[in-house]
Design brief:
about 70 residues; alpha+beta; about 15% helix; about 30% strand; elongated
Length: about 70
């Protein structure tokens, strides 16, 4: 497993705030534009945690700022 794959796994499966076990992603539902709600559940102690996560910015309607007026300094 490469280091980038390990990084993605750590992001996808946060540690439980109660017992520090890796949580399982149970549900993903749409949130406000450009975001999604993720529900995580701990398989060890059944603690539930919800998070609001930024959706893929390249598939989002919020991508307009990428073509903005920001320029490199001259």
């Amino acid at each position: 497993m490469t280091s980038s794959q390990q990084f993605l796994i750590a992001i996808e499966r946060p540690r439980c705030l109660h017992c520090q076990a890796r949580m399982m992603l149970e549900r993903v539902s749409p949130g406000p534009i450009g975001f999604q709600h993720r529900l995580f559940e701990c398989p060890k102690c059944d603690h539930v945690q919800t998070s609001v996560i930024v959706s893929d910015p390249l598939k989002s309607k919020v991508v307009g700022w990428l073509g903005g007026e920001l320029r490199t300094p001259n």
